[in-house]
Design brief:
By secondary structure, the protein is mainly α. It folds into two domains: about 130 residues; about 160 residues, no CATH class. A two-stranded antiparallel ribbon has the order 1-2. Helix 1 runs antiparallel to helix 3, helix 7 packs antiparallel against helix 8 and helix 8 packs antiparallel against helix 9.
């Protein structure tokens, strides 16, 4: 099947629409975050409330079971009641940002699918396509987490790096739709490249959450000034839980991706492991996140120490994505930038 230039152009337009949508969503979530005052509950309060919920003493909205709702102060500095008749303006921007981010995510999926149809192959054959898939995975993870935690105002910290990555990808990494090298025409491509891109995106989200943990912990250790912007971050318990749960979900998939990559290498090059720069960096990333999960399960390494390991894992993924692909030549030099 010949490459469809028209469908490729439509894919590029959908990518541009996704970038624009993420930009608008970033602005809205920035307004939402700036309108918040501070995380009203401490980690101790959160842990105690979770225990009370488990034994039935509290309902999920945090009030004693059987006791009617009373007006309380919201994180946006307004007095709320139930049923709510007026939504705080900051929360409105947050909802708008979430809706626009969903539209951008859909547009990016359309861009990825149509590019694959235009080239009649898996749309993960070069750095532009791979980076687009990772960006979509980060946004998809954020949307799932955000819909589960409706008052979690971290969109600005997720959308900022993703939006920047989208602009860099579209401006510097874009290549026209084309066929791929013969070495990539294998059924292993569907298994290995898909799993490594999706798991890398989820692990990047986990690393961002861990970075927020480190920032909030440093703010608390310096006196927890309530006028600081960092006072608006979610509590340590929440971001720690989110970082851990997303990492523990993505790590087995990333492990599977590394294993299938070795199997593909044996088919393509006759050896399971060649110590290629990208293979080596991927293995280092795997070791880092294995260390993070182990540290997270070890009492003496929980908290800040474990979070820093996750942040190092985030740096390793970004290093592997850009430096290895763009600077170091190797068997995985399929960036499509030359």
């Amino acid at each position: 099947m010949a490459v469809s230039s028209a469908l490729g152009a439509f894919s590029d337009q959908a990518f541009g629409a996704a970038t624009a949508a993420y930009t608008v969503a970033l602005i809205c979530t920035a307004v939402e975050f700036s309108s918040r005052r501070f995380a009203a509950r401490t980690d101790t309060d959160t842990a105690a409330s979770e225990q009370l919920v488990e034994v039935g003493a509290l309902t999920r909205d945090g009030r004693p079971d059987g006791i009617p709702i009373v007006p309380t102060a919201s994180p946006y500095g307004h007095v709320t009641d139930a049923p709510r008749t007026a939504v705080p303006w900051g929360e409105r921007f947050g909802r708008a940002g979430l809706a626009v981010a969903v539209l951008g995510f859909v547009a990016q999926l359309v861009s990825i699918v149509t590019r694959g149809v235009a080239a009649d192959r898996l749309p993960l054959g070069n750095m532009y396509e791979f980076t687009s898939a990772i960006s979509a995975a980060v946004i998809g993870t954020f949307l799932v987490v955000r819909m589960r935690h409706r008052d979690l105002a971290i969109g600005v910290f997720v959308l900022t790096p993703v939006t920047l990555l989208m602009y860099v990808n579209g401006a510097l990494l874009h290549v026209p739709v084309a066929e791929v090298q013969p070495a990539l025409n294998s059924y292993w491509k569907w298994i290995h490249v898909t799993t490594v891109s999706l798991s890398s995106g989820v692990l990047m989200f986990s690393g961002i959450a861990s970075l927020l943990y480190v920032v909030r912990q440093r703010w608390e250790s310096r006196g927890a000034d309530p006028t600081s912007v960092w006072a608006k971050l979610p509590t340590l318990a929440r971001v720690d839980r989110i970082a851990y749960r997303t990492a523990i979900l993505a790590f087995p998939v990333y492990t599977f991706a590394v294993i299938t990559g070795a199997l593909w290498a044996e088919v393509a090059w006759g050896r399971y492991w060649n110590w290629d720069p990208k293979e080596t960096c991927a293995f280092i990333t795997w070791v880092i996140y294995a260390g993070y999960l182990h540290a997270r399960a070890t009492a003496g390494w929980r908290g800040t120490k474990a979070a820093w390991i996750s942040v190092v894992g985030l740096v390793s993924i970004v290093f592997n994505l850009f430096f290895i692909n763009m600077v170091i030549a190797g068997l995985h030099s399929y960036a499509g930038l030359n």
